[in-house]
Amino acid sequence: MQGLASPRLRLGCRRIRAGDAGLLLPEETATIAARQLSARQASGAARALARDLMEEEGLEAGAIIRSAAGSPVWPAGVTGSLAHDDEMAVAVIARRSDILSVGIDVEPAAPLPDDVAALVQTAADVVTGTARNLATRLLFSAKEAVYKACYPLHETILDYPDIRIDLTRGEAITITGFRAGLRFCLSPRIVVLAVAFHPA
Ligand SMILES: CC(C)(COP(=O)(O)OP(=O)(O)OC[C@H]1O[C@@H](n2cnc3c(N)ncnc32)[C@H](O)[C@@H]1OP(=O)(O)O)[C@@H](O)C(=O)NCCC(=O)NCCS
């Protein structure tokens, strides 16, 4: 997973543990309180990880509240993204001056059920060159990562066909005109990073 990082992007992963809901700051808990304990544990683990990354970057590691739409609200000067599955939390952060927007997703390295794949994949998506049994799971994960990077900028709810992915080129574009570069790893889990830079 560290192979996805770059000098301007810090990312990490952390196993979710029983007491991780206690890592949420009070202002974060206030925006997450209604959720089940397992979800609060995952959110606590991801936020603790993101705060460690902000500190490593020399940034003030403040609260990351959840907006009404579900997106994380980052401290001033920071952009980032969070994701979790049943066991692992992942996070990425960057200085907003360096990176326009970033999205991350984590998925088990297992085939996506065919009925879900049929909802996710369109003829416009390019998946050649990726491990055939994981191609649609990777595509699914890439679309979620792109959505998370796009949403804070365009505030538009996108469906899977609204995002076109080219895994061979490592590129994505949405129907709202958002473009991102893609980086991913497949093992031991699928992790996808969608990164948008400031216009030149
Ligand atoms: C964003 C979304 C795709 C996340 O998927 P998920 O599998 O439920 O959860 P993940 O573990 O991958 O990610 C969870 C994190 O995503 C982030 N997130 C949620 N909504 C977000 C949004 N609108 N924009 C950016 N990030 C968002 C949050 O940080 C969340 O962590 P938290 O719950 O600890 O605050 C999903 O919640 C959603 O909003 N879907 C509606 C739109 C959709 O599904 N379109 C088709 C996909 S392109």
From TrEMBL:
GO terms for cellular component: enterobactin synthetase complex; plasma membrane. It comes from the Bacteria. CoA binds at residues 47, 105, 144, 148, 158. It comes from Rhizobium straminoryzae. Residues 29-94 form the 4'-phosphopantetheinyl transferase N-terminal domain. Its cofactor is Mg(2+). This is Enterobactin synthase component D. Pathway: Siderophore biosynthesis; enterobactin biosynthesis. Belongs to the P-Pant transferase superfamily. EntD family. GO terms for biological process: enterobactin biosynthetic process. Keywords: Enterobactin biosynthesis, Magnesium, Metal-binding, Transferase.
